[in-house]
Specification:
Rossmann fold; 3 domains; six-stranded mixed β-sheet; globular; four-stranded parallel β-sheet; 395 residues
Length: 395
C-alpha cells in the first residue's frame, strides 16, 4: 500500500492547538508547505477542525489537524472547544501554537495539562518570533517559529519527528505464521459486502501475511471445504469473517488454528484482554438493561446490518433477555456511559489505536464492560475458546 493510500487509522495524527489568532492555521500552512487552512487577522476564522492526509518527511504518512481556538467564546465557541477536545482523542503528537509576543496564558497551560493527562507528546511553537527583540532561552520541546517568514519551521518539523518514537510495526497475523506457511482467509461476499473491493481489515491482514513471507488464500465460505481438501499441506491458520464463524468452525479441523478478522483487530488495537473480560457481562444482563452498540465509521445500513440487526438478534437469542439497544457511529461516542450495562464496539479499523483505547478507557473507568464484535460473536456462537487459544499459546 502506498503512502498516498495509507488509511487514516494508519497515519500519525498531528494536531495543532492554541488560542484564537495565535497563528495556528498559518503555522499549519508553513509546516506542510501548502495552503491547507484559511488564514485571517479576524479571531476565530477556523470554526471546525480541518483535517488533511498527506506525506510529510521525515515522518511519512500523516494526518494534519487544525483546530478552532481553545479560547473561543459564547455558545458556539463552547461547541468549537468541544470539537477541539474530541480531536485530542485521536492525536498522536500535539503542537501548541503560542503567540511569542503575548506569552503563554491560562488557556495554553490548560492545553498542556490536557496533553499530559492524555499522555500525548507535545511541542510548544512560539509563533511570531519575528516580532521579538530578543529570544529568551526556551525549555526542551519548545521552539521559536515565524509562520510569516518561515523561521524555525524546519526545527519544528525535526522536533515533531523526534517525538514520534519509531516503533516496530505491530503485526496483525504475521507473528502467528512462519515463512512459507499458508493462511486461508474466509471472506463472505453478501449484500453487505462493499462492491468491487474488500474491507480494510481484510486488506491489512493479507498484506501482513505477505510481509511475513507466508501465503494467503482468499475464499468464500462455500469454497472453504474444497479448498482445505485441495491443499497438499493443511494451513497454519484460518481467519474468517465473524458473521460466518459457526459454519467455518464446523468445516475447519480442530487441529487447525481458527480466529476472525475482528479478533485480530482487537489484538492489533490493544484491547483484546479487555474485550475477553467484557464479554463475561453477557451472563449478568437482565431484562430492561441497555446495551450500546458503537461503530467507528458511518455506512449505509443494509436490511441485515450487523450492528442494528444481527447483533441485537444474537444477544436476545443468547441471553433470553429483553434488552434496550442504543447505537452510535462515526466520531460521536458518549462521554457518560452510566446508562449502559455493556458496550459492544466494532473492530475499530477506521479509528486510530489511541481513539479506540480512549473509548475503551472511557468505559472501563465507569465500570462498564467493553467488548468488540468478533469476541461477542464467537461467544454467542459457542466457539470463543477455540478462536482465542492461539493467542494464549503465543502470548
Amino acid at each position: 500500500m502506498s503512502l498516498q493510500n495509507t488509511p487514516s487509522a494508519g497515519r500519525i495524527h498531528i494536531g495543532f492547538f492554541g488560542m484564537r489568532n495565535a497563528g495556528k492555521s498559518s503555522t499549519v500552512n508553513a509546516f506542510t508547505g501548502q495552503d491547507l487552512a484559511v488564514v485571517s487577522d479576524t479571531k476565530g476564522t477556523t470554526t471546525d477542525p480541518v483535517m488533511k492526509a498527506m506525506e510529510l518527511l521525515p515522518l511519512g504518512p500523516v494526518m494534519i489537524i487544525d483546530t478552532p481556538g481553545f479560547d473561543d467564546e459564547g455558545a458556539l465557541g463552547a461547541l468549537r472547544v468541544k470539537k477541539t477536545l474530541q480531536v485530542l482523542r485521536k492525536t498522536d503528537i500535539a503542537v501548541l501554537v503560542s503567540d511569542a509576543a503575548q506569552g503563554m496564558g491560562a488557556c495554553e497551560k490548560e492545553l498542556i495539562s490536557l496533553f499530559r493527562e492524555n499522555d500525548i507528546p507535545y511541542i510548544v511553537a512560539h509563533n511570531k518570533c519575528d516580532l521579538l527583540i530578543s529570544y529568551p532561552v526556551l525549555p526542551e520541546h519548545e521552539v521559536y517559529i515565524s509562520a510569516k517568514t518561515g523561521e524555525g519551521i524546519h526545527a519544528l518539523k525535526e522536533a515533531v519527528a523526534g517525538l514520534h518514537t519509531a516503533q516496530a510495526a505491530k503485526p496483525i497475523a504475521g507473528d502467528l505464521l512462519h515463512a512459507g506457511d499458508t493462511a486461508v482467509l474466509v471472506v463472505p461476499i453478501d449484500t453487505a459486502a462493499p462492491k468491487g473491493r474488500l474491507i480494510l481489515p481484510q486488506v491489512q491482514t493479507i498484506r501482513d501475511i505477505l510481509d511475513a513471507g507466508a501465503k494467503a488464500f482468499v475464499v468464500k465460505e462455500n469454497e472453504l471445504e474444497n479448498t482445505l481438501k485441495e491443499l497438499k499441506t493443511p494451513p497454519a491458520l484460518v481467519i474468517t469473517d465473524s458473521q460466518v464463524f459457526p459454519s467455518v468452525a464446523a468445516v475447519v479441523p480442530k487441529d487447525i488454528p481458527l480466529t476472525s478478522f475482528s479478533i485480530l483487530m482487537a489484538r492489533y488495537k490493544g484491547f483484546l484482554h479487555t474485550a475477553l473480560q467484557g464479554v463475561k457481562a453477557l451472563h449478568t444482563l437482565k431484562d430492561g438493561d441497555t446495551v450500546l452498540i458503537a461503530e467507528g465509521c458511518t455506512h449505509h445500513r443494509q436490511c441485515e446490518d450487523i450492528g442494528t440487526v444481527k447483533i441485537p438478534r444474537w444477544l436476545k437469542n443468547y441471553t433470553g433477555k429483553e434488552l434496550h439497544i442504543k447505537t452510535c457511529s462515526g466520531t460521536e461516542f458518549p462521554e457518560d456511559l452510566s446508562a449502559f450495562k455493556l458496550v459492544i464496539h466494532c473492530g475499530g479499523c477506521m479509528l486510530t489505536e489511541r481513539e479506540v483505547k480512549y473509548r475503551m478507557n472511557t468505559a472501563t473507568r465507569q465500570g462498564v464492560p467493553f467488548v468488540n464484535y468478533g469476541i461477542l460473536i464467537a461467544a454467542v456462537t459457542g466457539i470463543l475458546e477455540r478462536s482465542v487459544e492461539l493467542f494464549e499459546e503465543n502470548e
